[in-house]
Recover the amino acids of this structure.
């Protein structure tokens, strides 16, 4: 059984605008999958349909099934989906800039957890991102873009997820930082057996680390296959990899 499965999912914004038009995809536990596509293709909307963060007054899943670990999540609110193990790192990081990195991590930890669990999770985050520990007592708003992205990922890890969804983690970062952060995402995927769904416009960077990818255009999945299959596809090369 797949950990996550979407079958023919449709999302409508403002009652009229069909943003995704029957998206189907599957993620196996421990896998690392990318959702690629141009601006406005429907990638963020797909992630929001999974995490429940569409903002019900604007966007609604009007058709299809979303199953996580065998459970239908469509009727569940966002906090229950986090409790089930789905965490969504939104585009633009959304950390608390007036709090320190350490306070950001503590704030993301579930209230019902024990002190011991909190300390263990926080130590794990600092093992992956030692830079955050060095900056633990500065205000997070003063961290660099790369450090803020690390913190956003660290916050997500504080919920002990089974699936982490990352929306454009490369946004605004230098190529060197993108490779550093992507390498760390790969490391976390392997070491924690954490399933990763990565939304990226930077197709080259994403295809370098994932096993499988879906290409979404205009609300439809138009192609899916192994990273190698997509990397060597002439259309992908021309339109998404800068001419290969
Ligand atoms: P980007 O990388 O720019 O976020 P994307 O592939 O993630 O692109 P979406 O953000 O999912 O694309 O947007 C899909 C379509 O839905 C776009 O046409 C967008 O304008 C529209 N859309 C997104 N969010 C909303 C919203 N809150 N209300 C109305 N329309 C929206």
């Amino acid at each position: 059984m797949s950990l996550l499965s979407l079958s023919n999912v449709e999302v409508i914004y403002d009652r009229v605008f069909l943003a995704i038009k029957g998206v189907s995809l599957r993620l196996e536990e421990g896998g690392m999958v990318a959702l690629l596509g141009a601006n406005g293709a429907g990638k963020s909307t797909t992630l929001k349909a999974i995490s429940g963060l569409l903002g019900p007054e604007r966007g609604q899943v009007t058709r299809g099934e979303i199953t996580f670990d065998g459970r239908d999540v469509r009727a569940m609110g966002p906090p229950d989906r986090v409790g089930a193990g789905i965490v969504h790192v939104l585009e633009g990081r959304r950390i608390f800039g007036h709090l320190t990195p350490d306070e950001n991590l503590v704030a993301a930890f579930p209230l019902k957890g024990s002190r011991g669990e909190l300390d263990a999770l926080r130590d794990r985050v600092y093992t992956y991102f030692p830079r955050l520990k060095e900056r633990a007592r500065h205000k997070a708003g003063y961290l660099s873009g790369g450090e803020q992205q690390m913190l956003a990922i660290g916050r997500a890890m504080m919920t002990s997820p089974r699936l982490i969804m990352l929306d454009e983690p490369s946004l605004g970062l230098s190529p060197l930082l993108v490779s550093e952060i992507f390498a760390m995402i790969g490391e976390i995927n392997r070491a924690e057996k954490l399933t990763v769904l990565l939304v990226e416009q930077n197709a080259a960077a994403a295809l370098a680390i994932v096993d499988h990818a879906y290409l979404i255009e205009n609300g439809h999945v138009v192609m899916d296959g192994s990273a190698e299959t997509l990397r060597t596809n002439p259309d992908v090369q021309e339109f998404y990899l800068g001419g290969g």
